[in-house]
Fold this sequence. Notes:
Layout: E1 16-24, E2 35-42, E3 45-52, E4 56-57, H1 59-63, E5 72-75, E6 81-85, E7 97-102, E8 105-110, H2 114-133, H3 148-179, H4 184-190
Antiparallel strand pairs: 1-2, 1-8, 2-3, 3-4, 3-5, 6-7, 7-8
Amino acid sequence: PEDADGGPLGAVSEAVLMRGRLHKDPINGRLGVRRHREFVLERSTLSWFEILEGDSPRGASAAAGQAPKPKGSLRLFASSSVQALASPAGVAADDPRLELISGRDYLTLHAATADDRDAWVSALAGAIAELARAGEGGGRAGLSTNAPWMDALEAANEARKLRWRRRELRRRREWRRRWNPDDNAEDEDDG
């Protein structure tokens, strides 16, 4: 079987920086279920594909010979950030997680091992650093101006706002856990 790039399935081409399987929480913390997906990191995009048909990545479209369509993707900017996360209280300590913030979106991913998580963090950080070296500040997709420095400032500002909102949400949840023990069951369903 061949990949969309024309190479053997599972091989990493020049355009693909890293490929592997991770568990993905719903984007931007929406309600939903954690899904097991095939992830492909390219120069400025992280895409994920559904895994169907006996662990074959990209499912039916690859089997039919069509170009696979990603289930979703996240564009990377020079102002994007990635970090390994510590396990929160009440979650197994052996749950290696990473968080990617890009523009207005954030994505929480769960790796099988801490080594896998570290490999993804370094690959994502390398892609982001390469975008910064190339001078691709970039703002929100489709809303860029002709001044890259303005796009970079806007994207950095959006990422800062998003981190602040996430921190405030964690503080509110912690306060509820501490002062409203009856709400713990409901609160765990939110996150």
